[in-house]
Amino acid sequence: MPITKEVEFVLAFSQEDRYRHYHLRIKGQVIDFVVQYETFINGKWFPVVRYDTSHGFAHRDLLNIKHEKRKTPLFITDKNDALTFAENDIKDNWEVYKQRFLREAKI
């Protein structure tokens, strides 16, 4: 029987900004993940940037206030490495992503 580990948590960057994390590992290998940065505007949480492995490959979705997304594939085939890249990118650049989101929303 494979050893499975599922991890899920939310980390606050500020009162209006948070990082949501989910990943599934089997025998130390990431099988599936979703990590995203969300911001709170006018009483509602909005996803701003999300990395995930849906559609069978690791990719980034840049979202706007209308929930439209621009998908960019990650050319990192190892899902462990892709998850690490995604985590670091969001934690290092969430403020830049927020400014883009607000600028596009004209807020």
Per the principal axes of the C-alpha atoms, what is the gross shape? globular
Number of strands: 6
The N- to C-terminal Cα distance equals 51 Å
Strand content: over 45%
Description:
This protein has one domain (4-105). Helices cover 25% and strands 48% of the residues. The chain contains one helix and six strands; from the N terminus they run ββββββα. It has one helix spanning 79-105, and strands at residues 4-12, 17-26, 29-41, 44-52, 59-63, 69-73. β1 and β2 form a beta hairpin. The longest helix has 27 residues, at 79-105. The model has no long low-confidence stretch (mean pLDDT 95).
Write the layout of secondary structure elements.
Blueprint: E1 4-12, E2 17-26, E3 29-41, E4 44-52, E5 59-63, E6 69-73, H1 79-105
Antiparallel strand pairs: 1-2, 2-3, 3-4, 4-5, 5-6
Give a brief rundown of this model.
This protein is of the alpha+beta class. It contains 1 helix and 6 strands; from the N terminus they run E-E-E-E-E-E-H.
What descriptive keywords fit this protein?
107 residues, alpha+beta, six-stranded antiparallel beta sheet, 1 helix, 25% helix, globular
